[in-house]
Amino acid sequence: MIALSPFARKLGAFVALSDAELAALDQLYGRRKSFLAGRDIVYQGQIKQSAYILASGWVCSYKILPSGTRQIVEFQIPGDFLGLRSVLFRTPDHNIEPITRVEASEVLASDLLDVFGRTPRLATAVLWAASRDEAMVVEHLVGIGRRDALERTAHFLLELCTRLMLVGMATTDGYACPLSQYHLADALGLSAVHVNRVLRELREDALLTFQKGQVTIHDFKRLIDRVEFDRTYLDQDGPLLR
Predict the structure, then answer these.
(1) Does domain 2-129 have CATH number 2.102.10.10?
(2) What angle is formed at CA 196 by the lines to CA 40 and CA 61, rounded to 5 degrees?
């Protein structure tokens, strides 16, 4: 049911969706596509690119520097928009790569304009989601600039946990996570060796274990206190509009 889709659950953190709004969301799911891991969905500089709503699987948004090094800007999970700027900008400013096999619904600019024209509250909810994404980028910038490696890594994994809880894919005990240490390194501005060392320290401190595609949180409250994680910036504690 659409009411239980990750996208609807995410937008429901901002606005209590009516039946008419859920029906409007349903129209955005018409062009469902599958993508294999490792094959970019969106390319930097590509012309006339669509956006997508991620239904299942994980992807990452990244940029390649002239030196060939990669900076992962964000990881997207079910319920997230992929490449929303791609339908607003003349050309995409980043690449989007599936980390796992994904299912996503293609969304054209005309689709968004039609739905937003008929359901203004949905337009407001999508603006909220885009603003929340911007808040996460700001938090990541703070992390890279001011948090040490352990704080940066643990804060990021707690953020993922909180985001996944919103769409029913995590609990305070942990979550399935397909990311490698190389993914984390490219997102956190660390080397894979440093990430490995930090994860070992978190495990030895009985705070968190990340092994075999599973993040296990041993003491949620103590982990939050250790890295001073304040999830206020994620703004998902209940609908503001009813």
Answers:
(1) no
(2) 20
Q: CATH topology for 148-234?
A: Arc Repressor Mutant, subunit A (1.10.10)
Three-state secondary-structure class, residue 140:
helix
Provide the b/e sequence for 106-121 (b: ≥16 CB within 10 Å). bbeeebbeebbeebeb
pTM of the model: 0.91
Can you spell out the DSSP letters for 59-121? EEEEEE-TTS-EEEEEEE-TT-EESGGGGTSSS-SSEEEESS-EEEEEE-HHHHHHHHHH-HH
Q: From edge to edge, which strands make up the β-sheet containing 208-211?
A: 174-176, 214-217, 208-211
Length reported for the chain: 242
Burial status of residue 172 (CB atoms within 10 A of its CB: 0-12, 13-18, 19 or more): middle
The pLDDT, as a whole number, for residue 1 is 41
Domain ranges in the chain are 2-129, 148-234
Q: What's the pLDDT tens digit per position in 102-147?
A: 999 998 888 888 888 889 998 899 889 989 999 999 999 999 999 9
